Amino acid sequence: MTDLAFRGDVVPLRKPAPEPSEFGAAMLAGLDRANKWVSAKFFYDTAGSQLFDRITELPEYYPTRTEMGLLQTHVQEIARLIGPDATLIEFGAGSSRKVALLLDALERPRAYEPVDISGEYLHEVAKKLRETRPALAVHPIVADFTKPFALPGGDARRIGFFPGSTIGNFDRADALAFLRRAARMLKGGGLLIGVDLVKDPARLHAAYNDAAGVTEAFNKNLLVRANRELEADFDLDAFAHYAFYNPSMRRIEMHLVSLTTQCVSLCGRRIFFAEGETIHTESSYKYTVEGFAALAEEAGFVSRKVWCDAGGLFSVHWLEAGA
Ligand code: AVJ
User: Fold this and answer.
1) d(CA 188, CA 186)
2) C-beta 164 within 6 A of ligand 1
3) How far, in Å, are 53, 100, 170, 204, 321 from residue 308 at the CA level?
4) Start-end of H helices in the chain
């Protein structure tokens, strides 16, 4: 305790505004731009993760069940290609169903290293896996895998697992940068990655505009989260969910459209919205099989095998990272 306040210094009447959180700083920076934008990684608070789990069960949302089907059908071949004594590193610990399938098929998997930005969620996942697989070493890594991060040491031969077409959230430059870092990190091993495919725009449109409105709730949860965490006052009825396929960019874009001219407070600042102005909340890039394999090779991988469903909806790539 100092006695500064007793020396006649000016004592501020109000506490200075607290440093904004990472989410707050990103919202302030993104909403300050002419084209308002926020990274899709901020969707995933607890409520957002639960809403995404519901999306994966929707009849219109084909990626999760199509990818799961591909993994089930080809898991023996996948396990053969991966080989024995692998350390499996998963980028983003999602539902443990896919990784459980893989771990059960692998010959003597050495360890499982899930990487996720949410430490709390990660430790839950680790606890569950340790209970069901007491022999497996589970090493959670709390990190943002969109940036470089440190790995535990040792001589492990690492196999990356990146399911769900989460790579679709990166634009081309970021996808290439991620794949380059992954190729270095996985030297001597490889990467098993799920990638959503270019297809009939009507099919894509339906997947991001489900009849039950779960994707709408997922999108708007960003505003709910801002209201709770950033002292924001978004009126949820004054914004609309808007998702469409942009064919020249080969991506789904999700936006929140301001339905009126309005001002919103956030982190002690006021943000103006014109009627019809949008916040771009997510891009989900779609690839052709050849296009993605070429990107992976540009990043330093060798494209060894691709599995697709009969309908051509989704692909799983096995990429080797030469020694
Ligand atoms: C988790 C990024 C793969 O792009 O399909 C689902 C997220 N957004 N519905 C996707 C999402 C709206 C999902 N990824």
Assistant:
1) 6
2) yes
3) 23, 21, 22, 17, 21
4) 22-31, 46-55, 63-82, 97-105, 119-132, 172-185, 201-207, 214-229, 289-298
**Measured between alpha carbons, how far is 316 from 293 in angstroms, rounded to an integer?**
11
CA 101 to chain centre: 21
Q: Ligand 1: does its nearest atom lie under 6 Å from the Cβ of 109?
A: no
Sorting pLDDT into bands at 50, 70 and 90, what band is 122?
A: confident
pLDDT digits (tens, 9 = 90+) for 251-291: 999 999 999 999 999 999 999 999 999 999 999 999 999 99
Q: Three-class SS of residue 110?
A: coil
Q: Tokens for 212, please give them.
A: 């039950």
Q: Determine the length of the chain.
A: 323
Q: Give the whole-angstrom CA distance, residue 90 versus residue 109.
A: 13
Res 76 pLDDT > 90: yes
Quote the tokens at residue 236. 């949820």
Q: For residue 1, what pLDDT band results from cuts at 50, 70 and 90?
A: very low
Q: How many angstroms is it from 4 CA to the middle of ligand 1?
A: 53
Contact partners, residue 307, CB within 8 Å, separation at least 6: 70, 73, 74, 315, 316
**CB of residue 245 inside a 6 A radius of ligand 1:** no
